[in-house]
Amino acid sequence: MAEQTKKNPNDKYWDEELETMPRNKIEENQLKDLKEMIQFAYDNSPYYKRSFDAAGVKPGDLQTLADIQKFPFINKKTQRDTQGVGSFLGELCAVPEEDVVFISTSSGSTGVPTVSPFTKKDFDEFQDTESRWFWQAGMRPKDRYVHALNFSLYVGGPDVIGAQNLGALCIWGGTLPSERLLFVLKQYQPTIIWTSPSYAWQLGEKALKAGIDPKKDLNIKKIIVAGELGGSIAATRKAIEDLWGAEVYDFYGLSDIFGACAAHCEYHDGLHIAENHILVETVDPNTGDILPPGSTGELVFTTLRKHARPLIRFRTGDIGRIDQTPCKCGRTHGRIYIQGRKDDMFIVSAVNVFPSDIEAVVRDIKELTGEYLIRIFNKDFTCKYSVEVEKKAGVTLSDEEVAVLTSNALKGRIGVKPSNVVVHQDGGLNTRSEHKSSRVIDEREQK
């Protein structure tokens, strides 16, 4: 189904057989693909041959899905250390460069940007998966779709092809300035847009300030968001939906694998992950020990079909869990729930705190605009945090009253109060961004 496929718009599923496959059949297919991928990586990637040999494991040692635990982890550091070694694409790559048709790169926000290569087959299967997510979110050939994501080396850029393959009318918006994007939304009346959660919120605010009511003057029915956790935070999703009068669907992707690897269905209860492409494990973030099914820990992904650069036991750095029970929508592929980045979590009074927890509180307080900034610092030999927020214009409560309200709400949700809450006027925080917003400042001394 990689080529454009004529489907009945009333069909619920993009690929019903795949999406509703019984769990035992999913795992049977996973094991078949995993055996092939482990052997392929060992035979063709200099890194994996060296790594497996050093760990004393061979491809033949994998006879069950649980046997993946015998093989060593890799992470972002592995990618950076092997990139460009021996060849342009590096030692993790398992195909010659002439077989690679596309590369994307990571943002480099946690280090040196890493290159993600695709063969033609990798790329086509990537886009078929995107078509599957778009269809799952309700996109149909009659829709007009604005792809408002960065096309410059970003793995999410080509996802627009998945919408085209589905048959939608696609507008390659990219990173247009807000004024130009609002013109596109008003002039062409598209029904679906994809951007980041923070930008979806900010674009709606800018529309109102420009005299455009997103609910009345625009025709957006669905907003796809990715790149930040907001789409899976109920308060943030509701704030965006109330602003636009549209339904929000969260997508999750990794530059290391492909654009969107998981996505909401109409029930918004976790994100269905493409288990035909990815084997999911959950491990203790500190020890790497395997955790029981349903436990929250660091998600570890193994690619099952991507040949250009196989990822065997890749530690994503994302904290979450997977639920492999069938969803109410009828789909049987597991749903992941992301809590935050391992690197973003901080501990206050023995409580694990994620920025997403703070966002959920701030976005739920009607007196606030929803913008926030977190500062993490050490005081008296212990970790503390403070929060800066914006008070909505026209709110009659004093800044002190808003600060107390916010502090108490954070205490109730997270379990620990912030050291202090700083209240700015509407627009006083410099956290609005055209794309991902930076909302955490870590002022602790790094050892």
What features would you describe in this structure?
It is a single chain. The protein has 447 residues and is an alpha/beta fold. It folds into two domains: 1-341, Rossmann fold (3-Layer(aba) Sandwich); 346-442, GMP Synthetase, Chain A, domain 3 (2-Layer Sandwich). It contains eleven helices and 19 strands. Strands 4-3-5-6-7-8-9-13-12-11-10 form an eleven-stranded mixed sheet. A four-stranded mixed sheet has the order 18-17-16-19. A two-stranded antiparallel sheet has the order 1-2. Helix 5 (120-136) crosses helix 6 (160-166). It starts with 15 loop residues before the first helix and ends in a 5-residue tail after the last strand.
List the helices and strands and how they pair.
Elements (H helix, E strand, L loop, with lengths): L15 H4 L3 H22 L1 H10 L20 H7 L17 E6 L9 E5 H17 L7 E4 L12 H7 L2 E3 L6 H11 L3 E4 L1 H13 L12 E4 L8 H11 L2 E6 L9 E2 L7 E3 L4 E6 L13 E7 L10 E10 L11 E7 L4 E3 L2 E3 L1 H8 L5 E12 L2 E10 L7 H16 L6 E5 L14 E3 L5
Parallel strand pairs: 3-4, 3-5, 5-6, 6-7, 16-19, 17-18
Antiparallel strand pairs: 1-2, 7-8, 8-9, 9-13, 10-11, 11-12, 12-13, 14-15, 16-17
Helix pairs in contact: 2-3, 5-6, 8-9, 10-11
Task: Sum this structure up briefly.
By secondary structure, this protein is α/β, with parallel strands linked by helices.
> Any guess at the CATH architecture of the largest domain?
3-Layer(aba) Sandwich
Order of helices and strands: HHHHEEHEHEHEHEHEEEEEEEEEHEEHEE
The count of β-strands is 19
SS-based structural class?
alpha/beta
Top CATH class of the largest domain: Alpha Beta
Strand order of the largest sheet: 4-3-5-6-7-8-9-13-12-11-10
| Rg measurement, Å | 22 Å
**CATH topology value of the largest domain:** Rossmann fold
Strand content: 15-25%
General shape: globular
